[in-house]
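Question thread 4412

I'm putting together a teaching handout and wanted feedback from people who do this every day. The idea is simple: show students a protein as raw sequence, then show them the structure tokens that encode its fold, then repeat with a second protein so they can compare. Below is the first pair exactly as I plan to print it.
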Amino acid sequence: MFSTVLVANRGEIAVRVIRTLRDLGIRSVAVFSDADADARHVREADTAVRIGPAAAAESYLSVERLLDAARRTGAEAVHPGYGFLAENAAFAAACAEAGLAFIGPPASAISLMGDKIRAKETVKAAGVPVVPGSSGSGLSDAELTAAARDIGMPVLLKPSAGGGGKGMRLVRDAAVLGEEIAAARREARSSFGDDTLLVERWIDRPRHIEIQVLADAHGNVVHLGERECSLQRRHQKVIEEAPSVLLDDKTRAAMGEAAVNAARSCGYVGAGTVEFIVPGGDPSSYYFMEMNTRLQVEHPVTELITGLDLVEQQLRVAAGEALAFDQSAVTLTGHAIEARVCAEDPARGFLPSGGMVLALSEPSGGSVRTDSGLVAGVDTGSTYDPMLSKVIAYGPDRAAALRVLRGALADTVILGVQTNTGFLRRLLAHPDVVSGDLDTGLVERDLGSLLPEGVPPEVYATAALLARASLPHPAPSRDRALPGPAPQTPAGLDGAAWVDPFDAANGWRLGGTPAWTVHHFRLPGQEPLTVRTRPSGTETELLLTAAHDGNAARGRVVARTHDRVTVELDGVTHTFSHATSPEGTWLGRDGDSWHVQVHDPVAASLGGAGRSGVDTLAAPMPGTVTVVKVAVGDTVVAGQSLLVVEAMKMEHVIAAPHAGTVTELDVTPGTTVAMDQILAVVTPEATEEDA
């Protein structure tokens, strides 16, 4: 067995690999870019090496710098994790040439299965059924368009060089094929450095089922059962489980055998996954999609139902050991479900987010496991993949695992960064998910029911109480007597140093009922609310009024600690976790989080940016402008694509809100932008009414 292993990755997967290395007594070496200098995987490794600036191309994707780090630290092997260079045949070959064991398959298998076109031809020859689609590599845009028309709409465009849903485009209208092919090529080139595409028939209401395989260098290949990965957004998995409720024992055995044959056909060694697309109405009709020649994000669910540590198995195989068991020894016990927690904002169309982790609490122990790369006080940024952590639950059956996972997500607190945690809880409670009636289009089809309906009023009430707690409170002084009885600081609220009571902005009066302190709050895309607070004995009374209907709710503070606040509103008690940032208050409850900002009614009355008769186009997420299609003075039509912003390997098209003229353009390709930063201004066309 190896004594030192370099982990050529970051985030939660690096932390996960380091955990097994520690358990086996193997020294771990982490690598990091400037953006990750204080990251959790750097803190947990035995040794850490800087490999370059934040840009992945100059750090995590630099073969030369990774090999230099391995040489300098005396590593004998390299674990690539997933993403970055995990499925890069040149990296695997370079490791071998440098005398390092690559903890993964041989470069030849990566090269073969990494080319989806060759992979389909190879497994088809081995008797594995494949999805109908284009044939041949290096097809031009015109050839892809012709193949798509021959197959018939709808079709799926897929990068030949990579997976994970990146660069995949579902096209239902032949008229937009050219635009979608161009976008798919950009995403593929950005994610994998290769813009080769293929096109396949789209199977409506399909299920995505994959088989975990494990092979050694002595000719032994086994499968470890299947994982259901049908719950997806934009072809990205969000929930995975094992086993699948769709398969019976006969179909499971048949698909397992097909996966083993696919692995043998490419001379596979190590842990890998064979992915199938399965018509929901006919599970026996399954088609090979691709083989991922690495460890999968969702590998923990297989570990929990088999009792195997897949990273340990990878290490043993890479060290030359034979598998210690055969197919007959593989048993599947219980049920496991995983949820991917990502830095994205469901309220803004799941756009990538980022920011400083102000407060963090992640469940673990018992039937819950959290694989995470998070640590409080670290900025998640928007440079890399948006996945932050994975919450995994185990139960004796599927119903129990679902119940445990929903509870675990409710206990997950990540404040300072918008995440999809609350969305995941609602998805797991969806009737079709509970019954197991899944398909890859379920999330997109029912998205409206999975998003919250506005902001609960108690969020604003709680934010107001926290805002009032930050105001200076008059307090008795040894050196100066206050007129009248000394006012009391509200129970549970931290008082500031003594100030002149007549200067305190908290409603204190010399006599009579204290005055109301007025707070104006808003969340992005929501109407502002007004909340009034005033001290009442040893508590704080509040009055919440919605701006649009004038309805009021009354409440009071119950208790507050350094990270929790409990309020009563209209007779119902609510408890929130909380944290503060320069921009406002963060509140969290049951996996949801809200960033409540102070609202300035005067600025709002001036029309936001203060520009009359024009529409400003702002960045919907922090990222980089990759494409600029217009110039100042250009005339545009409503809906015309003007710019493309990329963040966390996701593209977002900025379109013209109406016909008009581009009068300002503040960015060029390569410009790094912050969320809500102004990118361009489109002045609408003059109308007869204007004249």
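The second pair follows. I'd like the answer to focus on this one:
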Amino acid sequence: MAALDLLLSLAIPALIIVHLLVAPYTKVEESFNIQATHDILVYGTPTSDIYRKLSTQYDHFDFPGAVPRTFVGSVLLAGIGQPIITLVGFQHAQLVVRGILGLFNAAALLVFKKNVGRAFGRSTARWYALLQLCQFHVLFYASRTLPNMFAFGFTTLAFSQLMTNPDEKPPVYRYKLAIAYLTMATAIFRSELAILLVTVTLYGLARSHISLGRIIPTFIVFFITSLLLTIPIDSYFWQKPLWPELWGFYYNAILGSSSDWGVSPWHYYFTSAIPKILTNPLSTSVLIPYALWNTGTKSQAQQLVVPSLLFVAIYSLQPHKEARFIFYIAPPLTAAAALGANYIFTRRTKSVLFLSASVVILGSVLVSFAISTAMLVISSLNYPGGEALLELRNLVSSPSSLDLQTVTIHTDVLSCMTGVTLFGQHPSLPNDSRSASEITFNYDKTEDESILRSPAFWEKFDYVLAEDPSKVLGPWETVGVVEGFAGIEIVRPSTSLKYDIESGQDRIFGRGALVRRVKDSTRALIGGWWVGPKMEPKIHILRKMREGEARRAVTE
């Protein structure tokens, strides 16, 4: 069984890296940290004329976001990633820094799995690993540079210290360590984790696991340590006295401005987000309730479930809700489900009921893994901006392209929201001698509608990435289209697929082209049927038509 334990442990980081490689691009929610990491790697940390250098080189001065975010995570990614990037090349830098974050979260999950085995037994740890490996969201987001995922590793490590068997209390040092992790995650990365810090503390006090006299000094020490880390670093990069998470707390909780991004019903986390995060429908409907009800697992399950769900219940008072805001509870709730699964499976020889339940649970694991795999494939189709930028750079750099030494490109809002990053724009360092003979690319991200309506604005560009070509003024040719996911479709044999040549839909680039080939091959094999991703044009790659080309286009 040692080989099985090793296989399950290795599968956690392996699948996180697989998810990274299948979906290597980022979305707008991840942009601050990925852009900040790029700027630190490329421009360093100036020690003289600091404001001028930062304000003219760093992306966050042009795109600061709704609230300032901490640079601590980006500094760590850049610092750890720099020697690796030197070895593999800057063209792989985005994968490297995201991989570092993913492996940090994988390490936290492995520590959690180990402590599940210590507290509840190896067989429960195996069930925990199986259930965790079937959860799409944790594996997919583990390498994404969201503030939530920088905090995720710390909260997972905190929960790993709180698990005990029914016959013991957590050693004081373990509770102190959990408080330390939660304090750092709260003060540096996500202020709302103060709620989780409170619920964990209240549960420990209620169960007489710890006293306030033991907790408060630990909290104070690590709170001050966190402030001494985040305030100097962030005040330097933002060039003003700043504690980012205090600003974020004021913006979200005091002003209530997060509601501007949407409002969800109070029950959203319980009825929608948690079932989605855990993926396996039996986890929420059967395994966790059974573990809480069954005398043999009740005490262990409570220490995992009660603080987690209390955190979610309190946090549900915040009108704006997103599943990623509660990813932290996935490991403890999964461990609670593993308690129920293990209890049932170990008794499979005792009765037909336990045997049948065991078969159903095993089947649910396979089904959940298939669902997670399908979700990964579908999610990888949601980054047309990143694909379009890569295809455009390859197109311009190809021998058959026009002989241009400098190419100026405009990227629209949708492109920037779905994968265009500084790493993609500049896949080599400015002072890299290996890129001296390459084409120089200049980019523009203007969003102001009044400027975009001016014909003169568009004259300076050679290429444009645009969601709507009609808004790009002047003579332009569609050289290709990148499609994105638009739902699941059922195509019948009688359906004839025709593509609009004029719009460029006959020149599909990126994964849309792969989906189209698979679709055509599948229909040919099974009599014209197709059930799968529906793709639709998202980003059009436009090339400016030169004077002679424009005249010919008009006469034609």
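Top answer:
Good format. For the second protein you could add a caption like this: The two ends are 73 Å apart (CA to CA). Residues 19 and 140 are 5 Å apart (CA to CA).
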